Amino acid sequence: MINGGIFKYTAKTAYLGHVLRNRKYHLLQLIIQGKEQLQIERPLMGTILYKLSAIPQSTKKCEMSLKIEPVTPKVDFGESPFWDAGDQTLYFVDVLKRTINKYTPATNSYAKASVPVEGNGMLNSIIPIEGHQNEFAVATGKELIRVRWDGISDQVEKLETIAKIPKAGSHYNFNDARVDFSGQLWIGYLGLDPINGDFGIFDKGGGLISVQGNKSVKEHLDGITLSNGLDWNQNQNKFYYVDSRPGEIYQFDYDPNNQKISNKQTIFTFSENGLGGIPDGTAIDENDNLWIANFGGGKIINIDPRTPNTIIKTVDMPVSQVTSVAFGGPNLDELYVTTSGVEPSAARTPLEGGYLYKIIGLGVRGFAGRKIKV
Fold first, then answer.
1. Low-confidence residues of the chain, pLDDT below 50?
2. Is the peptide bond preceding residue 70 cis, with omega within 30 degrees of 0?
3. pTM of this prediction?
4. What is the per-residue pLDDT for 54?
5. CB–CB of 68/317 below 8 Å?
6. What's the rounded Cα separation, in Å, for the pair 86 and 373?
7. Contact (CB, 8 A) for 77 and 123
8. 345 with 76: CB under 8 angstroms?
9. What is the pLDDT of residue 58?
10. Phi and psi (nearest 5°) for 356?
């Protein structure tokens, strides 16, 4: 389909001009002129420039020019991006290959290291530890462990177990994590099929805990299907949380003095907004608006949590399995996006994805990751 030169996309939604190709990558410049967004599935390796001049009916009208480019090699299942403002580095995990990964934009360098995980557990998050250079809290299966990694070698040193999921049985697995303003880690978990160790999720088997500075565990939620993205507003009086299987984002009142959540409200539902796939990882921007990865839907959804079921804008990604997002860059105005390169099943059928992407041109700033104090 793409052989260089110029061609027209015949649907009313777009004109694609100057489609170039060389042996290393494709460069597409897309001018979207209609009243729908164009779903782009190729290419993967290269730079994609979008100009969005019209938005789906559920969003407010806006116009923005975006540059979307993959910045790392392909992994199986990228997740949990964390921007370290101190060393200007983006960390993330490969859930299935059980590696922690490091991307440094200034040098365009990439490194990864294997992490020991017991049994069929998966590797789901990485967060640097405050005041301890090259030390990280990493969620592995049922355990949250402390590791040391120099960011260069291909192996880590396990130092200790920080906390465990407070339920008996080997089939529980940690998932997305985030540190609150006091330095305490909040992390969700889910029930995992003990037979094949892949994506068999038990209904209502998950929950949400926080890990205190003394390594004690405090339980906050139970009966969760698939615990995912979480974050707080800047005033620290609201807490946002994703349960992926019902496709819902919740808002809670938050008491920062006691690390307590209450008054659960559903503020966004995927089905009510005609969205396919499920909500996954999240980030919050300087305006207290949420950016939500749309796993299986190939989008990033920007919503206003103060007005239920309000989409501000959407960003179409070049792959379908979008897993999580994090703001980064020197000015915190770039959005890093992790994706999956395999089908979410025991077969792990390869997909066109698995890259860490960087988006430039959103016109909004976010926040660097907060490190855990433990």
1. 1-63, 195, 197
2. no
3. 0.84
4. 32
5. yes
6. 16
7. no
8. no
9. 44
10. -90, 125
Percent of the chain exceeding pLDDT 90 equals 72
Three-class DSSP labels, 49-71: EEEECCCCCCECCCCEEEEEEEC
Mean pLDDT, the chain, whole residue set: 84
**How far is residue 87's CA from residue 93's CA, in Å, rounded to a whole number?**
18
Three-state secondary structure string covering the chain? CCCCCCCCCCCCCEEEEEEEECCCCEEEEEEECCCCCCCCCCCCCEEEEEEECCCCCCECCCCEEEEEEECCCCCCEEEEEEEECCCCEEEEEECCCCEEEEEECCCCEEEEEECCCCCCCCEEEEEEECCCCCEEEEEECCEEEEEECCCCCCECEEEEEEEECCCCCCCEEEEEEEECCCCCEEEEEEEECCCCCCCCECCCCEEEEEECCCCCEEEEEEEECCEEEEEECCCCCEEEEEECCCCEEEEEEEECCCCEEEEEEEEEECHHHCCCCEEEEEEECCCCCEEEEEECCCEEEEECCCCCCCEEEEEECCCCEEEEEEEECCCCCEEEEEEECECCCCCCCECCCCCCEEEECCCCCCCCCCCECC
